[in-house]
């Protein structure tokens, strides 16, 4: 119970803090837009956490052959897709107001789009296998392969291909100015926000697992 | 069952030779791949109608032709075992890693043959201004090995599903995309005059690390796909 209350408190703090504190402003002329970073960035982290959780459960499944883990794996992937869509939408709004277009094929935009495709393919694979054990087995294998390619999309490509996001090398070769230096005031909203999003994600995941397991029990009654 | 590594290599080669023999009997995969490649190259050539393309377009179109031709042939490598009911015999004969090894070698040979024919054809009909031949050669080679390393395990996965061919394109595309992006970017650098290995070092590093990660994961996970 206490951790649910903690999440509630932290989320409230983030919602208030994101409006009270000055936005993390680099050089742009419209700094208010940057307040979305308090939600956009944690959602992106949440996406990776959800897909990482999915991979963890697929390894557990392959080790134990217990269909319980297959169920958790697919629920984590579903949650990851929801977070991924939210990241894409909030990012597109942010991009429209800072870079001028909803979509720019910046390396990170490419990555998030590819993540959607990887996990859409994961669900396409699941729907194509009828036998539950076979489905669990194949989707666990694909989930591990998919997460390995996710690592390349999220952590490697955006850092080496020139792009617009912070952390990417600039086309001119100059690397300074590409990293936003967060002030202390930004950090005390952003870091709780990341933690709260991860907490919320784990909570939703736990609830959806509980519901799915109850439903399964009801089927047997 | 633990096997001596030399035994596995020997069996991989046996699986490979069996595949070559079967392929020469029907020539399904090689015909499918080559027809696909030739038709696409001609379609592209006809569509651009003799207009010189920029280096970026040349590199992108070349890799699109190679990638889609691969899809036509590589999806068959395990589907044909399931369809001709020979998968069980193969499972009895050799350990999983030898089967994957044999299939990897076979697919690699298939793609090398494809590239030997497609790339010059593309150069003649569409145009390739290669300025750094060895870089170009390296990119095509690593890209091809990478495609084989990442898709052979996917071919094994889809052979167990109900829709097979269509699914192969869907689920192998995300696996291949990092490779394609890097291969296109590296090939572009081999075409633009004045750029060389120094500029393409990053692409080569990513391609090789991706190839190693995917091949190792393939060997780790293949056993559960194949023997289940």
Descriptive keywords:
heterodimer; A: 221 residues; mainly alpha; 6 helices; 76% helix; 0% strand; globular; B: 228 residues
Describe the protein:
The complex is a heterodimer of chains A (221) and B (228). Chain A is an all-alpha fold. In chain A, 76% of the residues lie in helices and 0% in strands. Chain A has helices at residues 2-20, 37-64, 67-98, 107-128, 132-160, 184-220. The relative contact order of chain A is 0.16. Mean pLDDT of chain A is 83; it is low at 172-179. By secondary structure, chain B is mainly alpha-helical. Chain B has one domain. In chain B, 82% of the residues lie in helices and 0% in strands. In chain B, helix 6 (96-125) crosses helix 9. The longest helix of chain B is centred in the middle third of the chain and has 30 residues, at 96-125. The interface between A and B is medium-sized, with 30 and 28 residues.
